[in-house]
Design brief:
Number of domains: 1
Largest sheet: 5 strands, antiparallel
Number of strands: 5
Strand order of the largest sheet: 1-2-3-4-5
Oligomer: single chain
Structural class: alpha+beta
Radius of gyration: 16 Å
Distance between the termini: 58 Å
Helix content: 25-40%
Number of helices: 3
């Protein structure tokens, strides 16, 4: 039996979260405010937050090939009803991934670690 596309996207999202949390994936700022990017082999993965200004924002992951050609894009709402490892759903999972990517790209965690080391020395 074939795996549904949304199940594969759920698996991808869970893997991105796990590899970001363990430090395997590094996220960078882009020229677009609030868009974070990671180069993974021959592909680029972006994450951003999108909002209509009225409702709760959605989180979107977009995939591109090495030439910058668009492959796929999906939002947390596309994965509703599927299992997000360690989260109540994919809104919370992708929100966490987005904020982790933002902190990593801004250098916030490194700055905090450096300040703690300085204060403890």
């Amino acid at each position: 039996m074939a795996v549904s596309p949304n199940n594969r996207l759920a698996d991808l999202t869970n893997a991105l979260i796990a590899k970001t949390d363990d430090g395997t994936i590094n996220w960078d700022k882009t020229s677009i405010q609030g868009l974070y990017s990671s180069n993974l082999g021959s592909y680029v993965v972006n994450i951003d937050q999108i909002s209509d200004g009225v409702n709760v924002p959605d989180y979107r992951i977009s995939l591109y090939n090495q030439f910058g050609d668009f492959i796929e894009s999906y939002k947390d709402t596309d994965l509703s009803g599927l299992r997000a490892h360690g989260y109540d759903g994919f809104f919370a999972a992708m929100e966490s991934l987005y904020h982790t990517a933002a902190r990593q790209a801004s250098g916030a965690d490194k700055a905090i670690d450096d300040i703690i080391r300085f204060l403890n020395s």
